């Protein structure tokens, strides 16, 4: 089969690097273009030395006419939110399918976007068409999507960790606590004071308590599953590791259940989902490093359900699930290049 020509936008960043490492293993993909604001069209290996000898593509400014002329069929947007909705409509208008790794197209209600992101949404037309790309929940909508809103890194741990309980209406839909810890690469490659080495090394800190923009994303998906509003208290923490997210979730059962009934709910919900691993011991971030797996452990403790979820923020949290979506969009086995 002729490989599918793809473009990656925002080539200097961490998710672009992760995506390149995965796509270079994909038998049916050709990296046609890597776009960047960098001056002088550098080789990708000059910006990401781990790609030296593996990928000989020059970075180039974004030029949609050129991408169309070269037959690009899918573009991965690895840009910050805001920059995504400023660029991606140009590609979509020309028939290129897009997987957007930013948050711009994840929240269906533009008023909710404005409330949590502090800016109004500028592309209501494509927002209305976007499919939320969490394959385990919205998998049937992905093959025909022109625009995939790739899910956020933290939200995937909260949504997947709670999905079996919410779908079974087995827990209270308020007072759910999601306590998450992320490695520093979650903040991207662009330097910031909080992620400067002396600021974050040997230290753990909570941030954006009660106002992190992933709260409405988690609630939107869980509300879809429940058919009624679900409310969460989501608290992220920055931890001194390169990559990985560990979320510990606390929920209150609506009715009493045994450990076996609880485990059965999870087994049934995630049956046939190749990237969910139900664990008999609490997972660690190292167990999922560089993989597309989401590891989930669940236990009853003093009348509460405690769920521990581990994922790699760059692989499963961003670029791995983007390739999982790509595989579904273009009719490949969803595990291609990921297992
Ligand atoms: N890091 C993570 O774990 C996750 C990230 N995401 C999301 O994925 C997207 C990319 O994240 P990540 O790779 O970590 O971010 P980075 O900051 O590492 O990279 C983003 C890249 O986008 C380009 N860029 C930056 N600002 C602009 C701008 N104003 N206009 C156009 N291009 C710009 C730059 O590339 P260049 O200089 O080459 O132009 C930059 O390197 C973000 O929206 C992020 O929120 C989602 C899930 C997890
Ligand atoms: C550790 C860290 O700073 N993490 C980022 C979230 C990661 C991310 O990329 O989220 P979006 O895809 O929704 O932009 C944060 O809390 O803002």
- CATH architecture identity of the largest domain: 3-Layer(aba) Sandwich
Kindly give the count of domains. 2
Low-confidence stretches: none
Apparent shape? globular
- Going across the biggest sheet, name each strand in turn: 3-2-1-4-5-7-6
The helical percent reads 25-40%
CATH superfamily of the largest domain: NAD(P)-binding Rossmann-like Domain
CATH topology of the largest domain: Rossmann fold
Task: Give structural attributes.
Dihydrodipicolinate Reductase, domain 2, Rossmann fold, globular, 7-stranded parallel beta sheet, 339 residues, binds NADPH dihydro-nicotinamide-adenine-dinucleotide phosphate, 2 domains, binds N-acetyl-L-glutamyl 5-phosphate, 7-stranded mixed beta sheet
Can you describe this structure in just a few lines?
The chain is an alpha/beta fold and 339 residues long. It has helices at 14-23, 44-47, 64-69, 83-93, 110-117, 124-129, 135-138, 153-167, 197-200, 214-226, 259-269, 315-329; strands spanning 4-9, 29-35, 59-60, 74-77, 97-100, 131-132, 147-149, 176-182, 205-206, 232-238, 245-251, 276-278, 294-301, 304-311. N-acetyl-L-glutamyl 5-phosphate is lined by residues 81, 102-103, 152-153, 182, 186-187, 214, 236, 238.
Topology:
Layout lengths: L3 E6 L4 H10 L5 E7 L8 H4 L11 E2 L3 H6 L4 E4 L5 H11 L3 E4 L9 H8 L6 H6 L1 E2 L2 H4 L8 E3 L3 H15 L8 E7 L14 H4 L4 E2 L7 H13 L5 E7 L6 E7 L7 H11 L6 E3 L15 E8 L2 E8 L3 H15 L10
Parallel strand pairs: 1-2, 1-4, 2-3, 4-5, 5-7, 6-7, 8-10, 12-13
Antiparallel strand pairs: 8-11, 9-10, 11-14, 13-14
The site of N-acetyl-L-glutamyl 5-phosphate (X2W) has 11 residues, from strand 10.
Family: Belongs to the NAGSA dehydrogenase family. Type 1 subfamily.
Pathway: Amino-acid biosynthesis; L-arginine biosynthesis; N(2)-acetyl-L-ornithine from L-glutamate: step 3/4
Organism: Tuwongella immobilis
């Amino acid at each position: 089969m002729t490989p599918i020509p793809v473009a990656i936008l925002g080539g200097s960043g961490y998710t672009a690097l992760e995506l390149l490492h995965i796509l270079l293993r994909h038998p049916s993909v050709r990296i046609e273009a890597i776009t960047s604001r960098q001056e002088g069209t550098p080789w990708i290996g000059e910006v990401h030395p781990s790609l030296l000898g593996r990928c000989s593509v020059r970075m180039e400014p974004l030029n949609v006419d050129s991408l169309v002329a070269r037959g690009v069929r899918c573009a991965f947007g690895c840009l910050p939110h805001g920059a995504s909705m400023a660029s991606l409509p140009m590609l979509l208008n020309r028939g290129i399918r897009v997987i957007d790794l930013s948050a711009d197209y994840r929240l269906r209600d533009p008023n909710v976007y404005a409330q949590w992101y502090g800016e109004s949404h500028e592309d209501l037309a494509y927002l209305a068409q976007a499919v939320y790309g969490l394959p385990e929940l919205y998998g049937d909508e992905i093959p025909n999507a022109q625009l995939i809103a790739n899910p956020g890194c933290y939200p995937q741990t909260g949504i997947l960790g709670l999905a079996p309980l919410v779908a079974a209406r087995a827990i209270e839909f308020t007072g759910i606590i999601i306590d998450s810890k992320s490695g520093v690469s979650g903040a991207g490659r662009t330097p910031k004071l909080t992620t400067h080495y002396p600021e974050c090394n040997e230290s753990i800190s909570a941030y954006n308590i009660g106002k992190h923009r992933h709260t409405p994303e988690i609630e939107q998906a869980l509300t879809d599953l429940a058919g009624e509003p679900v409310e969460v208290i989501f608290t992220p923490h920055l931890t001194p590791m390169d990559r990985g997210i560990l979320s510990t979730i606390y929920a209150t059962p609506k009715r009493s259940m045994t450990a076996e009934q609880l485990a059965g709910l999870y087994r049934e919900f995630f049956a046939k989902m190749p990237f969910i691993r139900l664990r008999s011991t609490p997972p660690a971030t190292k167990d999922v490093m560089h993989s597309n797996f989401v590891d989930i452990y669940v236990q009853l403790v003093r009348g509460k359900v405690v769920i521990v979820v581990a994922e790699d923020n760059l692989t499963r949290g961003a670029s791995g699930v983007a390739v999982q979506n790509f595989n579904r969009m273009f009719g490949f086995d969803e595990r291609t290049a990921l297992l």
